[in-house]
Amino acid sequence: MSPDLLMLLVFGAAMLLGVPVAFALGLGGAAGIVAGLSPDMLATLGTNTYNSIAKYPLIAIPLFILTGLIFERAGVAASLVRFAQALIGPRHGGLGLVVVLVCLIMGGMSGSGPADAAAVAMVMLPSMTRAGYPKPFSAALIASASSTAILIPPSIALILYSIVVPGVDLRALFAAGLVPGVLAGMSLLLPVWWLARRNGWEDPSQGERPPLKESFIRALPALFAPVLILGGLRSGLFTPTEAAVVAVTYGLLVGVFVYRQLSLKDIWGLLGEAGMVSGVVMIIISLAGIFAWAGTTLGTFQHLAEAMLSLSDQGWVLMILIMVLVLLAGMLLDAISIYLIITPILVPLMQHFGWNPIWFGILLAMNIAIGQFTPPVAINLMVTTQIAGIRLEKTFGWALFFMLTMLSALVLVMVFPGLALWLPERMGFVVGDW
After folding, report:
1. CA atoms of 257 and 22, how far apart (whole Å)
2. Alpha-carbon gap, residue 229 to 158, rounded angstroms
3. CA atoms in the 13 A half-sphere facing the CB of 395
4. Which residue of 25, 269, 327, 349 lies most exposed, with the fewest beta carbons within 10 A?
5. Cα–Cα distance, 328 to 214 (Å, whole number)
6. CA–CA separation, 227 vs 215, rounded Å?
7. What is the pLDDT of residues 110-146, one digit of tens each?
């Protein structure tokens, strides 16, 4: 058996046996090293795990995780919901439209779909249930709308992509994700409005419209957070990593002094929770370094890329196959694992066909976003169904429906790359091809 095949088989077998993905990656990489190189090369395990996380841009990940937790607990979601209700007003599907709008804004603060899903579900699910929306529909809608956080800057997944793919400007990625993220959210609006009107959900005569001016003033500190992050990056005032520090500081100021929802005890608890979540992420990245080093040294990733190229010499055919592969992976794995496992295989294909790495990274992120609420794993859906108190399988039909609507946005960005590249080009960032 070839070392390439053994490495992949050990990784796949470990996953099937329920081994956590981080350790499955490490075991697969170690098996490949022993079979294809030499047992003495196991001495590189420590160096590879350290080198995988000893990268300055990765500092932004735990900081943005902390930012998301701070805004989640600071009462930001409630103020944004009230402001969105004041904008949209009582109408059929109004609360559904509020969900999408709030999730898009929350995505500009946390970069984490599950965090946004939890924050919005806690606020919106009771109101939607009282208005007549079925709980499975509400849970699926919040899960799908919150998945746009992976596209709206600051996105933890895009930070990782900029590290895995050399030479990609993270600021350009952040800017490129904005229009597709909004487009993905908008793809949910028309179906939500149509379904609510067709089924008589949310009687407009029984709703109340909060005062617009008061709601706007209350939500203004939350609305300013995405402007601060993206504006600071565009002006060159700070780097993406420094933007994470600014976001944490701003979130603490808003939570303690503006919304007054955070105490010193709460902050201490948030630091511990962010540390645990960040630790899990960093363990995955560090042990994936073993897998990546073994695959690169053995030529596994190059061999897999050549095998995919042998299927077809048409770029669009392979693009569709890649999108299907990533969608299937998104149904089973988290975004971080997908980027670490699949991206090294895809880089040679990007270079071969001359695909723009910024555009391609956004396509991957849109696909992975769909996987976050698509069964069987569906991490966002797990969060919302737990809060709604319903079984996961009751939401599958609605989740598949929203998957199709968001796939339409993905197809648009595939066919028209300018939807992703226009904004970073206008902002003066480097978005050149390979």
Report:
1. 39
2. 15
3. 33
4. 269
5. 45
6. 18
7. 667 777 888 888 888 888 888 889 999 999 999 999 9
Eight-class DSSP state of 41? G
Two structure tokens written together for 169: 């400007």
**Residue 350 in tokens:** 């990007």
Cα 376 → chain centroid? 17
Cα distances (angstroms) measured from residue 25 to each of 294, 314, 386, 424: 10, 31, 29, 34
State pLDDT tens for residues 80-89.
888 888 888 7
Of 166, 54, 167, 174, the closest CA to residue 111 belongs to: 174
Tokens (6 digits) for 430 = 């480097």
Enter the pTM of the model. Answer: 0.85
What distance in Å separates the CA atoms of residue 353 and residue 331, rounded to the nearest whole number?
27
Which residues have C-beta within 8 Å of that of residue 185, sequence separation ≥ 6? 100, 101, 103, 104, 145, 148
Cβ burial, residue 96 (10 Å; 0-12/13-18/19+): buried
Contact 311, 321 (CB under 8 A): yes
Give Dmax (Cα) for the chain. 75
Peptide bond into 376 cis (omega under 30): yes
Domain boundaries, the chain: 37-427
Q: Is the peptide bond before 154 cis (omega within 30 degrees of 0)?
A: yes
**Contact criterion met (CB below 8 Å) for 97 and 88:** yes
pLDDT along the chain (434 residues), means of 10: 85 87 88 86 85 83 83 81 84 86 81 78 86 91 90 84 85 90 91 86 76 87 83 79 87 87 88 86 86 85 81 85 85 78 85 90 91 80 86 87 92 94 85 62
Other beta carbons less than 10 A from residue 284's beta carbon: 23
Rounded to 10 degrees, the C-alpha dihedral 117/119/123/128 comes to 0
Q: 171 is written with which tokens?
A: 């600021």
Q: Distance (Å, rounded) from C-alpha 292 to C-alpha 58?
A: 17
Q: How far apart are CA 418 and CA 53, in angstroms?
A: 33
* Buried-exposed string 20-45: b where 16+ CB fall within 10 A, e elsewhere: ebbebbbbbbbbbbbbbeeeeeeebb
Long-range contact pairs involving 349-352 (C-beta distance under 8 Å, separation at least 24): 349/305, 349/308, 349/309, 349/318, 349/322, 350/165, 350/434, 351/434, 352/305, 352/309
E-only strand ranges, 154-306: none
Residue 312 region by backbone torsions, left for phi larger than 0, else alpha for psi between -120 and 50, else beta: beta
State both tokens at 255: 């939570």
